[in-house]
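User: Can you fold this complex?
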Amino acid sequence: MLLKNKTILLTIFIIMNLASAAQLFGIERFPRPQFESDYQQPRMTSPDPRAATYEYIDIAALLAALSVTTFLILKKRSRRGVFVMMLLSIAYFGFWRKGCVCSVGSIQNVAYALANPDYAIPISVIVFFILPLVFSLFFGRTFCAGVCPLGAIQDVVILKPQRIPLWLNHMLRGIPFLYLGIAVLAAVTGSMFLICRFDPFIALYRMGGDWGMVSFGVALLLVGVFIARPYCRFLCPYGVLLGWLSKFSKYHASITPDECIQCKLCETSCPFEAIDVPVTEKPVESQTVARRRLAIILIVMPVFMLLGGWIGSHLNKPLSRLHPTVRLAEQVNNENAGRIYETTIYSRTFRASGETMEQLMAEVRQIEHKYKIGGWWLGMFLATAAGMALINLSRRRRQTIYETNHTHCLSCGRCFDYCPRHHALKGDLVQT
Amino acid sequence: MDKPNKNQPVSRRTFFGDTLRTLSALGLGSLVGFGARKATSEELVWQLDPDKCVQCGQCATECVLDPSAVKCVHAFDVCGYCKLCGGYFKPDAKSLDTAAENQLCPTGALIRKFVEDPYYEYTIDESLCIGCAKCVKGCGAFGNGSLHLQVRHDCCVNCNECSIAKACPSNAFQRVPASKPYLYRGVQRKDFYPEK
Ligand code: SF4
Ligand code: SF4
Ligand code: SF4
Ligand code: SF4
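Assistant: Here's the predicted assembly.
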C-alpha cells in the first residue's frame, strides 16, 4: 500500500512537472466526481466586510468629536472637558475602530489618488483628511486637542514635562516637513505608505503586531512622560498641514479669556512650548537692517529652491529604494553578479515568474524617473519650508501679550488654568 | 513694505487674515477636488488573487493580526474529492489516514471526511487556519487547485495599507470594492464577478 501510494504520488509529480506550463487554474486533473449518494456539495461562506453604515457612523463621530472639542476649548474653556474627549477618542478611534484610516495616514491616500487616477478614493477617507483641516483653518488645532487618537494616547502620559533648549526645539520641528515630503513622495510613486508602516501606536490599539513597532510606540510613550507629545511635535506629518492652516485660523484658543495682565503665570505652563512671550527689550537693530535682510532672503529664496530641487532630484536613486521593485532588482542584480549567494523569496519568485531582466530594469527606470521628478518637488518644498522658517525667525515680532503660538499650539487648554483672568471670569477665586 | 498703519492695524490684519484663509480654503478645496475625481462612496478592502499567489507563506507571517486574516478556502466544485489529497497529506505520508504526522497542515485545520468510495470531502476549520498556504501549494501541485487563500473579512481589520500586500512577492494583493470582497476560484467567483 505504502509503496503504491508513493508511486502514484511520484507519477503525478512527474506529470505535474511536465504540465507545469499550463499551471493550476482551469485544469482539472481529476474530474469532478459523479456522486452516487445524495451528497450535497457545500458552498464557501463569504463573511462580509464591516458594514458600510459603520463608515457613516465614523464620519458622524469625527464631526461630533471635532465640534464638541472645539466648543469645549473656545466657548467653555474647559481642560477637563477636553481630557474626557481624549479618553473617548482613545476608546472609539483607537481601540474600537483600530486606527484605520486615520487623518494622519489619509494624506497618503489623497496623494496616491492625485497621482493615480485609477485609484477610486473612498469618500470617507477624503472626509477624514479634510474635516480636521477645515476645523483647523477656523478654530485652530482642536483635532489635536481631543480627537486624534495618536495625540490623545501621548497626551495622557505627560507627567513631568521638561523644557528643551530653544535651538533644539527649532531643529526638531523641521523633521515633520522632511517626513511629510518623503511620505508623500513614497505614496505618489506607489512605493509604500510610509506613515502607516511607521505608525507607532497602531500596534498598541490593535494590541498586537510587529514587535519593532510595538517597542517604538512604547519608547515614544516613555519619552513622552518627559518630552510632551514627541510624535506630535517632532514627527507628525499631518501636524505640518494643521499648523499651516491653524496659523491663519479665525478663532483660535487664547490663554486669557479677555485681556492679558502680564502676570507671567502662564509663561511656562505649556508642555509643548507653544506660548509666545511679549517682546520687551528694544530691538537691537534698526528697521532698515531687518528689512534689508528680509529682502535678501526673498531674493535668495528662488536660488535656494532650485538648489533644493536639484539636490532632491539627484537623490532619486537612494530614495527610489523605498519601492519594492527597485529593491528586488538590486537583489537580483547582486545575485547575478555573484555578490550575494543567498536568494530571497522575492528573487526566487521573480525568476520563477518568467519575467525578463530587461522588463524588470525597464520598470526600475520608470520608477527612478518618477523619483527624479518627485525629488525636484521634494527639494523645492523643503527649501521653501526652511526659507519660511528663516523669515519667521528674522521677522521682528511686535507682540505685547502672552499668546498661544497659532502654528504649534495644540489647543489642549492646559494654560487656561494658569491665567488669573480665566478664574476671575469663572468666579472661582473668590473663596480664598 | 507693510508699514503698520497706526490708525487701523486691526482691520488690516483682519483683511490679511481673511485673504489667507480664503486662499487656504480654495487650495484645500482644489487639492481634494482634484484627488477626488474618481471618488467612490464605497469602501475598499484588500483581497488576494489566487491566480497570482505563489504560496510563499508570507500571508501567515506578515499580517498585523496573529493568526493571520488570510485563511484557506475551498472551492468544492473544483475539487476532485481525491482519496490521496495533495493538500491534506505530506508527500512522504506513511499511510493515508488522519494521523497528525501524515498531515501537511501544521495546525490540523484541514478536515477530511469520507463521502463515498473513493471520495473524500475536505473542509477548513478557519479558527485553526493560519494562512500558511502549505495545503494550497500541495493542492496546486498534485490536485485541482481547489484549495486557495482569501482574506477573510470577518477577521481582517482593513489596514490602510495591508502589510501582506507589501510583502507579497507576486503582487497578488489588490484593493477591491467592499461589495465584491472575494476573488474566489470556481463557480462562486461569479457571486461577485459575474463577468469573469
Ligand atoms: S500632531 Fe499629529 S499625531 Fe499629534 S494630535 Fe495632531 S494630528 Fe495627531
Ligand atoms: S492650549 Fe496652551 S498649553 Fe495647550 S498647547 Fe496651546 S498654548 Fe500650549
Ligand atoms: S504573500 Fe502572496 S504569494 Fe505569498 S502566500 Fe500570500 S498571496 Fe500567496
Ligand atoms: S489588511 Fe491588515 S488585517 Fe487584513 S490581511 Fe492585510 S495585514 Fe492582515
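Chain B touches chain A through 82 residues (CB under 8 Å). The pocket of iron/sulfur cluster (ligand 2) is lined by residues A 253, 269-270, 272, 274-275, 404, 409-415 (CB under 6 Å).
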